[in-house]
């Protein structure tokens, strides 16, 4: 099997909320791409397992995979629900350094995260 097939399977299970199956496949993968990692983050966020989503995000970075716009958008709701401003602010700085703040989706996710954490002025600064 190639990485595209593996990613399709992991993404499919994650979209269905079947994270045990997605996790088993994910850990079986020889080569994980940003798509693989983001599928897991999105899946956990989608079923409300916010700590797991943030753990996968951190593991991704430890594995040497740099977050892209989609992975940031996928993990920011977990930051918002858990009130994890430390990670949320790090993501904001990272997005700024990488030029991702030009992406509407990234800005919207940051605005939502700051708003849910009660930091309305930081949310307004993104406009």
Automatic annotation (TrEMBL):
InterPro entries: PPR_At4g14850-like_plant (IPR046960), PPR_rpt (IPR002885), TPR-like_helical_dom_sf (IPR011990). One of its GO terms (molecular function) is RNA binding. It comes from the Eukaryota. Keywords: Repeat. One of its GO terms (biological process) is RNA modification. PPR repeats lie at residues 2-36. Belongs to the PPR family. PCMP-H subfamily. This is Pentatricopeptide repeat-containing protein. It comes from Noccaea caerulescens.
